[in-house]
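Example (one chain per record):
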Amino acid sequence: MDFAFTKSQEALRARIREVITAVVDDEAITATHESGTNHWPPLVRALGQAGILEEARPGAGQDPVALSILSSESQKLGAPFDSIGMALAIAGVLEAVGSDFLRERVGAGLLAGEQTVCFGLTEPDGGSDLAALKTKATFDGERWVINGAKMWTTLAHIADWVFLLVRTDSDRGRYGGFTVFVVPMDTPGITVDPIETMSTERANATFYDDVAVGPEWIVGDLHEGWQVLSVMLGFERGMGDTTALVPLARRVVEWATEIGRIGDPLIRERLAQIAIDAQVCDLLTQRTVWTAATGQPPGTEGSIAKVFATERYQHHARWAQATAGAEGLLGYGAEGAAAGGWIDHDVRHSVPQTLQGGTSEINRNNIAERRLGLPRAR
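Predicted structure:
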């Protein structure tokens, strides 16, 4: 495995850093933090205008390293990335299995940085078991009429589109009879209710009451939504949140320097461990990207990287808070807060990272069964 970047990849990384540093300032960080919405329109537009979103779009004929570089550099620089990652994943799906109409109507706007999309997947009673979803679409002879509810629909309150998985045929078994629609969020019958989370990020509950859409909004083949979903999840391999330890280490260094404890042997030892774990995260992520780049079948590399990265992030964030003491409990912008409240933010933010994109438990089962050949435990 050769993880060294090519000259063109290094040039792309330099361009990405240039765009981010030019657009993302203290105002952007404060605005996204206070709103709980991980989206900064000037950044997305700038990346679109620079052609970076098109270059980073996953799919056949694309360099998967480009998406990984964009994700990594965004996270290291503290730039809002959620809306970017979602847009690229869906643009990749539409390029792979979408119609010309959807590529032109939806994909083009996403890659230009002018529109946003959210994922309508998880449901209130299903959690991570997507096959248990109850949202249904019935055909009335002209249109599909959707009824149901989704949970944790991040960015639904600002999105132009929802990538919506629904059941269209209940007689096709546990994993059959699903269909994916891309639905305009301004379609009558869609309601968005906010959910405030402990991580300070805004999530949403979304409700679909007789939401009518034409067959032109179907992604892929009718009743074959599970295959479409598999394409999307495959693209997530290149954009995992595995670099959070880098900004955490930076914040701890700044805090320890400010209060005169940077020479404390205990702090220096822990900073060394954070740096080591950050390097392991980087290598695991690069292995994931490398396997995708060489065209190998999807394996457990992404699960391994995610479990290690998110759990080490949570572990080190909690250590930082305990070391900072009472000041580490103060939130963002509070007077006297350690690292301006970012340590408290990291602790809060680290918790949902072990849940999003598949819980640690699900990923461990995946590793145990597919990598180690252990029997199913459920």
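Caption: Residues 265-293 form the longest helix (29 residues).
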